[in-house]
Amino acid sequence: MEETILIFGHKNPDTDTICSSIVKERLNKKNGYDNSKAVRLGNINKETKYVLNYLGIEAPELIEKIEEGQKVIMVDHNDFGQSVDGIENAKIIGVIDHHCIGNFKTSDPLYYTARPYGCTATILFKDFKEKEIEISKEEALLMASAIISDTLLLKSPTTTKHDVKALEELEKIAGINTKEYGLEMLKAGTDLDDFTEEELINIDAKKFEKNGNEFKIAQVNTVDISDVLKRQEKIEKVMTDEINKNGLNLFVFAITDILNSNSEIIALGSKTNVVEKAFVKKLENNRMFLEGVVSRKKQLLPNIDKNM
Amino acid sequence: MEETILIFGHKNPDTDTICSSIVKERLNKKNGYDNSKAVRLGNINKETKYVLNYLGIEAPELIEKIEEGQKVIMVDHNDFGQSVDGIENAKIIGVIDHHCIGNFKTSDPLYYTARPYGCTATILFKDFKEKEIEISKEEALLMASAIISDTLLLKSPTTTKHDVKALEELEKIAGINTKEYGLEMLKAGTDLDDFTEEELINIDAKKFEKNGNEFKIAQVNTVDISDVLKRQEKIEKVMTDEINKNGLNLFVFAITDILNSNSEIIALGSKTNVVEKAFVKKLENNRMFLEGVVSRKKQLLPNIDKNM
Predict the structure, then answer these.
(1) Given an 8 Å threshold on Cβ–Cβ distance, is B112 in contact with A98?
(2) ipTM of the predicted structure?
(3) Rounded (5°) CA angle B131-A163-A46
(4) In chain A, positions 111-170, which contact chain B (CB-CB < 8 Å)?
(5) B101/A112 CB distance under 8 A
(6) pTM summary value
(7) Is the dihedral of CA B171, B172, B174, B179 positive or negative?
């Protein structure tokens, strides 16, 4: 029997990670690699649930670790710290990603396709086009959803002309009105009411390290920042617990208004001065309003990293 | 003025590194990026000299280091240890490579195209095809030379069907007889007579590290192994000097018969037992004959690395 190739995105999966895994499985099968199988490394969030429900398709199977020598394709990430347990001993045959590269290593040559686009699905879309493979209505909606999610309806500064062009074509194939569908999808994803504070700070959290300092940046999207700030006291409590438990030097929690493209951040830890230096602004009541800031990858992380 | 993008391969440049740098510059210019400039990080070897003389073109300019923030495209390598001084602080906008990935890191998303092919030029060839850009006679010969060099006229086990197909097409465009031209080129490259022993062990040497052990694998190509072995005593002397100077645990010097696809290796250092374990064979007089072994990347390194 042919060896299975597992395809997965990062832990704390978002819509790009899940949709790109599913689409990559389908693209592989259309290319004759029937042994490809999309899996996921965590729970499906509300936004992705909206997409899967819309299409009436199942989420990929959940896995927690992989065996030594398992053939894998990583999508939407390359950092081993954000990947499946056991990734160090996997046989990585491919990576399709749109992030900077770090903490990644293989002992064999491989297929690695990184592009500085706003979304992994945009790279996949181009792959369909270059190989002249037809995109089904379902695949188009999956890729469109990923692009809408990662670029916040093309409003995020991570958006490139490649994403714009891809979404334009995908909209036609999927037969949707991108703006209407996208707004519904984003709203579904920002319904934060039934999350506990502890869950809130873990919805989309990534850990980083610089010069011996460990720091974490978590982000939630909303259509009403003040609604989340009502819970500030309780949020700070769980952030402090996390700082103490994991010896973090800084914990930044960003509440991003996806409709107006701004963020309010809460920053705690011994290195909050780094945040003040990074954005040339004082924290007040542990908070700071950042106009025009919506991207962890392109705005929050590089500025904080540079000053850490 | 537009910022220059420097394009270069690894230190100790070989034919793929030089030819792919030149071709990538030309491909970029055909795509409208006039600010691209191929450069090199070391002396041109005899084989590459044969190619450049054949075409009557100049070698790229030699550089030794780069400034902070310099925009660069790395070809035929990704390991910072094999790259230009200052690479850590460069702005890497692209990588085109066919090696495993390690010791590579960026703080921004980028274009990274790795393929497990035998040669970087094969990736470039496919790029021309996908973008439907015409390949000139000169570009075809540069890419063909790189493929012939890296795959030893398609005999190396690193050769893939992609390299075979590319060389087939490039032969037609370049208007050469691949076998005749390739043999002359490879012979020009294996003329070792006027190298000192110290030069011999540095023609194509790469350093590695595993579990705290530093080791080096150097390789020379020849059409007559015994001719090189006449100098064994002097070669061992300079290898030992190198081991002592750089605290190496193992130094493997491979003399590869490119016509019959075998290698004789000389191994010195405290960890020569690793080599014996790796190839299940005893060293005699510090030497070992390895039938069918021609590739450092695919045969020597993985076996030694696994047992280190």
Answers:
(1) no
(2) 0.75
(3) 140
(4) 111-117, 130
(5) yes
(6) 0.78
(7) positive
